[in-house]
Design goal:
two-stranded parallel ribbon; globular
């Protein structure tokens, strides 16, 4: 996100004046002229609803922290790493030696892909799922074993457990899963972890967990000290709206944390660390942001139901649904309306992943969806 000097100063002044809690998500969005253009669907600024980004951006506190850090950008941030780690450890209810930060959770996923995939190590993952770990592991010579999701588009845990062999080093669970949006309950994950051989690492990617509202879906951090090898990953890219700032972290036993830390190539920059610390304390913004996204998610699923279109039960900031036609036709139709929607996820040739945007963006998407359904019905007649 590009912020002007005036926007940064406005965010800083709002926080310094003690009015942070009064600044709503809508006000924060107003600081970003690109968001206004996207909402209006102006030419040259398409509505980007294809990357699972948080359209409301970083909180006012995080923006102010970035602005205040510009003068200190000439300094190495090494001394500040423990401050963020300690804050994350308190948030997760663990000791600091059980947390490691990374340049987004993506870097940590790649580190885990390398650690478990080298020397043709076997890694099991769902299909479809988020591919950063499997793809990177493949480049290191890993043997990948994909297990199709079940009829509800959830991880098929019994099938994944049956796929484990003596050569398996890790099983990757994206929960909620990207791109399907479905989530596994805590008891199901706990049972799965306890059934894993001691040499297998269960990697649980919780990038979208903050958007889950099912009562049985919660973090798996309580499993890291059960005697099994468990790694839980979190990110500031989603609910915190900091995808472009790059900051994430992993939670695991100290010896596993040491392995991951040694496999990293970089650490978060000074802007990421200070923005992350500020965002963690901006509870009112995070709550408002979550509320808006969940309300818009409900609007989208209600619209799909009215049109008779199937969808996976969403627990992230996106919805995976059946367009009822070849995906390429749907994406082209929406692009004509200046809306960019999700890419193809084999083998779901007619399914689309739509990111939940701002309220005006959701309005535009629903109008486009209705128009597409009407055109499809007219062709069928």
């Amino acid at each position: 996100m590009d912020l002007s000097r005036r926007e940064l100063l406005s965010a800083s002044a709002a926080v310094l004046a003690g009015s942070r809690a009064a600044i709503s998500v809508a006000a924060a969005t107003e600081l970003h002229p690109g968001a206004r253009a996207e909402a209006a669907g102006q030419a040259g600024a398409p509505m980007i609803l294809c990357w699972n980004e948080n359209p409301y951006g970083p909180s006012p506190a995080a923006r102010a922290a970035i602005a205040a850090s510009i003068a200190g950008a000439c300094r190495y941030p090494d001394d500040e790493v423990p401050q963020l780690v300690d804050m994350l450890a308190r948030k997760e209810g663990v000791s600091s030696d059980r947390v490691v930060t990374g340049t987004g959770s993506g870097e940590l996923l790649r580190a885990l892909g390398w650690l478990n995939g080298r020397d043709r190590g076997e890694i099991i993952a769902a299909e479809p799922t988020y591919l950063e770990l499997p793809d990177y592991a493949h480049h290191t010579g890993a043997t990948l074993k994909f297990v199709a999701v079940d009829k509800q588009l959830r991880h098929d845990l019994p099938a994944m457990q049956a796929a484990v062999s003596n050569r398996t080093r890790a099983v990757y669970l994206c929960n909620p899963n990207n791109p399907t949006g479905t989530a596994l309950g805590a008891k199901a994950i706990e049972s799965f972890v306890h059934g894993m051989p001691d040499h297998v690492t269960t990697i649980i990617d919780e990038a979208y967990l903050d958007f889950a509202d099912a009562p049985d879906v919660r973090t798996a951090t309580g499993l890291i000290d059960t005697g099994k090898r468990v790694v839980v990953l979190r990110t500031f890219s989603k609910i915190h709206g900091m995808a472009g700032v790059r900051c994430g972290y992993a939670i695991a036993r100290p010896e596993i944390i040491a392995e991951i830390a040694a496999a990293r190539m970089t650490t978060p920059n000074i802007f990421a660390m200070r923005a992350a610390r500020a965002s963690l304390g901006d509870h009112s913004f995070l709550a408002d942001c979550r509320s808006r996204i969940l309300a818009s998610r409900k609007r989208i699923t209600s619209g799909l139901e009215q049109l008779g279109l199937a969808y996976a039960h969403p627990q992230g900031n996106f919805v995976f649904f059946d367009t009822g036609a070849p995906l390429a036709r749907f994406t082209a139709f929406m692009k004509e309306r200046n809306i960019l929607v999700g890419r193809h996820f084999p083998p779901y040739d007619s399914w689309c992943r739509i990111t939940i945007g701002t309220e005006p963006q959701v309005d535009a998407f629903l109008r486009g969806l209705q128009a597409f359904a009407g055109r499809r019905a007219a062709r069928a007649a």
